[in-house]
Amino acid sequence: MNGAHDMGGTQGFGPIEREAGEPAFHAEWERRAFALTLAMGATGEWSIDASRFAREDRPPLDYLSRTYYEIWAAGLERLCAERGLLTAEEIEAGRSLRPARPVGRTLAAADVEPMLTRGGGVSREPDRPARFAVGDRVRARNAHPRTHTRLPRYVRGRTGIVERVHGCHVFPDVHAHGGGEDPQWLYTVRFDAHELWGADADPAAVVSVDAFEPYLEPA
Amino acid sequence: MGHDHGSHLSDTQRRVRALETILTEKGYVEPAALDALIETYETKIGPHNGARVVAKAWTDAEYREWLFEDASAAIASLGYTGRQGEHMVALENTPAVHNMVVCTLCSCYPWPVLGLPPVWYKSAPYRSRAVTDPRGVLREFGVELSEDTQIRVWDSTAEVRYLVVPMRPQGTDGWSAEDLAALVTRDSMIGTGLPSR
Q1: Of A80, A95, A118, which marks where a domain is finished?
Q2: Residues A127, A214: one domain?
Q3: Does B37 touch chain A (CB under 8 A)?
Q4: pLDDT of A29
Q5: Strands B160-165 and B87-92, how do they pair?
Q6: Strand A205-212 and strand A184-192: pairing?
Q7: What distance in Å separates the CA atoms of residue A121 and residue B160, rounded to the nearest whole number?
Q8: Which domain does B165 fall in, by range?
């Protein structure tokens, strides 16, 4: 979707504010929002792609006026509500008002380290040959789905060169919406800054994105 | 998108507390697991992990070659694996090429080697500008590159995670990997800084 999250090339946000000796979290509620998001992710009720969509699919004004973990908290609440794990009334009441329904699993403290260490790889065995090879010229499709996509707006319609082939990975555009993993070939595609930003762009800059095969066409 | 206090904050605090209470009461989450998750990212996983990878690449030619060939395996061999680092690529800075990493769409970042991203990495100013004006962004970070140094920006749009391997500082011949690791800053592994020397 063309949301406020798709920030590449937007102007006017001002200087980058850095903090010396920055802690991992700035408040207790941030710690809890982070951990709740990971723990609920472990129930298997949704994918990481669905959770990214739940965070980005907000009115731009809302997205831009919330802090990072505020968006995480709102995304988690939405995912839980959409899947019937809690209700708005319960959030208002601050406690559970209905019986729980079964979930895939509840993450135990002892499973935290193994789960994090194992991770959740998304590479899958290819069931077809790659359409593109390193060195091929490709154009990013000019498409504007209302659903989740990982093709940033600033490369759409632009021509680049395939730089790496990563094998087949779970396709977020489909996976985010419950359509299964639908693995697709994944490429790193390199664009000259001139191609993306015009003649005034830095002549010695290039930008790469990781692009799934359905995002690309031969150029 | 900063972390300063906004009008949503007290409402958010209340809602997060409600979320935790409800999800715990329903048995979907275990409080001890939440504590373990927080403790992991506050105390165990952080840029000291990535610094060890870089220092080893600086001191061990065979490891360096492996790292650029198969970063996931080379990094895993030091014990850094898992969530948000399943598919790693290491990027080599040279006098001719400077690499820099961003996630314009959200906050993708190599957790096992760098920990959780700093606020600026997740912020609108960095995400918007890193791809259009990388040289200006670097200048803002105090990194001045010669005009003919190519800047390569890597936008982490899928599940591949990038680790920049900065150039080894001069005058460090004979240093141990441990001493070298102390020079490797977090920002130098994102590409917005240089080793501290």
Answers
A1: A118
A2: yes
A3: yes
A4: 97
A5: parallel
A6: antiparallel
A7: 10
A8: 46-190
3-class DSSP assignment, residue A27? coil
B141 and B95 in a single domain? The answer is yes
Residue B142: DSSP 8-state: T
**Contact B19/A at CB under 8 A:** yes
Report, as residue numbers or ranges, the catalytic residues of B. 103, 106-108
How many structural domains compose chain B? 2
Any domain includes A15: no
Residue A66 burial (C-beta neighbours within 10 Å; 0-12, 13-18, 19+) = buried
A81-120 residues touching B, CB cutoff 8 A = 85-86, 90-96, 100, 103, 106-109, 111-113, 115-120
Q: Is B147 on the interface with A (CB under 8 A)?
A: yes
Segment B78-117, tens digit of pLDDT = 999 999 999 999 999 999 999 999 999 999 999 999 999 9
- How many whole angstroms separate alpha carbon B72 and alpha carbon A176? 25
Asked whether residue B4 is assigned to any structural domain, the reply reads: no
CB spacing of A90 vs B18 below 8 angstroms: yes
Q: What is the pLDDT of residue B1?
A: 47
**B80 close to B71: Cβ distance less than 8 angstroms:** no
The whole model's pTM is what?
0.96
If you average pLDDT over every residue of chain A, what do you get? 97
**CATH code, domain with B87:** 3.90.330.10
Domain that holds residue A43: 28-118
E-only strand ranges, B28-96: 87-92
Q: Do B106 and A39 touch (CB under 8 A)?
A: no
* Whether residue B71 sits in one domain with residue B13: no
Report yes or no on B1 lying in a domain.
no
How much of chain A exceeds pLDDT 90, in percent?
100
B32 shares a domain with B61: no
ipTM score assigned to the predicted complex: 0.97
Judged by CB atoms closer than 8 Å, whether chains meet at A103 and B28 is answered as yes
